[in-house]
Design brief:
Layout: E1 32-36, E2 40-43, H1 44-58, E3 66-69, E4 75-79, E5 92-100, E6 105-110, H2 114-125, E7 132-136
Antiparallel strand pairs: 1-6, 1-7, 2-5, 3-6, 4-5
Length: about 140
Amino acid sequence: MLQPKQTKYRKQFKGRNRGVATRGTEVNFGQFGLKATTSGFISSRQLEAGRRTLVRHIRRGKRSGEVFIRLFPDKPITKKPAEVRQGKGKGNVEYWVSVVPRGRIIFEIAGVSEEIAQKACKLVSNKLPVKAYFVKRTIL
């Protein structure tokens, strides 16, 4: 699972995730991508599940295709244990998430045909908590 090696502060506020992405909206590394249409948080476990699905689908039998992850989970999410009274400070870090605004590219794929990439992106989008769609690179 992805997580930062070190951070300046252990715990963060959750914050608000409004608006549209200004960066990371174009396919830069591969030919095809998966673009978010809704905003939200994607956990490191969900990212890893998506990556595994992509790799498994595009490399069926052949060692071809490349996957690029355009997100990194760098926001800690804390939780207090079950059946603990309120107060006494913030809970411990449970997992790490990546903040995904609307319009952000999540994954990119290179070295496979469009049909395979489209099918793989459909499988991955079912595993993610945000809605996403398949995009092609505009400038080659």
